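Reviewers of the previous submission asked for a worked example of the structure-prediction workflow described in the proposal, so we include one complete record here. The input consisted solely of the amino acid sequence. No template or homolog information was supplied to the procedure at any stage.
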Amino acid sequence: MSSTIYNHRSLQPTVPPAQGPNQHSHVRLNEAVDTIRQEFDVITSDLGILRNQRDEYESKVTSQINELNIVRQSLYELESQHGKIRQTYEEELSRLRGELHALRQGVPAGAPHPPVGPASVGPSGPPAPPPAVPGVPPGPGSYNEPYYSRDRDREREREKDRERADREREREVRDRQREERDRDRERPPAEARDSKRIKTERMKGDTRPGKPFTSSSTRSPPPHGYYATSFSPPLSATDHYSPSLQPPNAKLPPVPGAPPALTTFQGPGLPPPPAAHAPYPPGPGNPPPAGPAEPVTGSSSTLVPINNAQSGGGQFPDDLDPHNVPPELKKEGTDWFAVFNGKVKRVLDVSLVHTLMHESVVCCVRFSADGKYLATGCNRTAQIYDTKTGQKTCVLADEAAGKAGDLYIRSVCFSPDGKYLATGAEDKQIRIWDIAKKRIRNVFDGHQQEIYSLDFSLDGRLIVSGSGDKTARIWDMVDGSSKVLTINDADPVNNDAGVTSVAISPNGQLVAAGSLDTVVRIWDVGTGSLIERLRGHRDSVYSVAFTPDGKGLVSGSLDKTLKYWDVSGLLAKRKEAVANGKKDDKGSQCTMNFLGHTDYVLSVAVSHDGQWVVSGSKDRGVQFWDSHTATTQCMLQGHKNSVISIDLSPAGSILATGSGDWQARIWSYTNI
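From that input alone, the workflow returned the following structure tokens.
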């Protein structure tokens, strides 16, 4: 019994079980998961807020863009109304002056002086005033004798001239101060010229599409005393249309023999100049008085005379006044006009077909080989339009390209079969797009600076490119190989030999390249050897184009001229000279000068039938030239800013123009 009492188990206190290391780990893991969940919730909330802000910003941007378009349209409408009112004012003023002149001429000689006013009282009154003009009632203090009227008119004109001069001086001072502030604000630390920033660095004033149209009215040419083509204000560093352009201190040397630069800007909002004016200033087709023929050197520096007899006889007269142009020599649209040269037979008619609005400056335009499509290049995108309907059919943009800053598409070119579009941009790459798939087929890398020009060979096998790195390259579309054409002989005065424009001859044997050092160079495609240097331009060459037969080459330059070079048989002559061990001292000749633009020539093209040479300029005009005589047939004004690029359809009589006013336009031209 006692054994059962004392042999029981002792009671143990009730306590929680001991916690081992596994239980501690589980608790910490739960805490970490909770912390992560809380942070995720916070991030998700922040992301939602950011998305809402993004949507709000996008909505605001869209609204502002719409408002900007409305303002731009209103500005164009106001400009149109202003032009119409000014035209009405000019017509009324001209009519009144004509009536006054007729009244003055109608005063009879030796007419008696009837007394008027106090003179009728008696002999003690003051001398009678001069006789009244018939048909005009006299009144106190209103003597109608021609000499009194003329004196008052002269005095009024002198007062207006003084007031106008004071306003212009004040405006010049303000513009100069604003220009200096802008230049100081935007000048980069290093003022050295960046050789790759070409093609647009000299086209100051090309960013703002709202600059006044070159015509005084959207329906009529400018009034008396206004330039017919260029209303360029004082240049400023802010007028570039791309921030990648060169510093504002890189300026052009004056062109020998060129007219002095316009120092004051007269446009909407400024008082019109007096009706009595000097002869109409030079404009497109109104070249300065012709001087002696300019000798042009070939590759051997041999002087070759230029046939200026052909190029000087058919220009617009220096005193051309568009108001006085006969109706048969003028054609007007709602916001464009064309003036035809009265010194030569009119054989051309021009009409606007489509206006293609863009979101930035239109840097380049190019037709497909069949003429059915037009490609344009602007900031970050290349676009393709149907030339018949004007509808946009395709937009090509590389989403992989960096989003920072601008990326202007400087050149576009269709392959001959129309399947591919080549684009050259500021990022040094050539992209070959499959148009149907809207995808990049391949990318050609190799240039060290921006690419400014592209051209396909007619068989589609080769594509040639020109860059600011002083090279042109020939790329093989099949194997991707390239041949580098380097400029090693840059002009000692203009050391920068960046290539601005390239063209491959119709037979695919020659490549021509225009460069900043004023020289046009020609290479043999087969060997890659340089076979010709065409010297004669006084400033950078910005555009080159072969004639359809391949016998001629047209170049356009910042010296405001175009030149036609005879390159027929060039390759055969060189091979013959090399075979005979002789040097060809003759070189290719410049046989025609095209004179008439008042500012930089930025783009040239030759029609598919070889009849017309067409050029676009910073003077905002497009000129049609007879390719055989270099005479101007027509001057077309249809943009509110520089005409940066033009192209003529290989398949028909269609012209495309691209401008700094954010527009591309399609025109038709027909023989009459």
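The two ends are 143 Å apart (CA to CA). We consider this example representative of the routine output the project will generate in years two and three.
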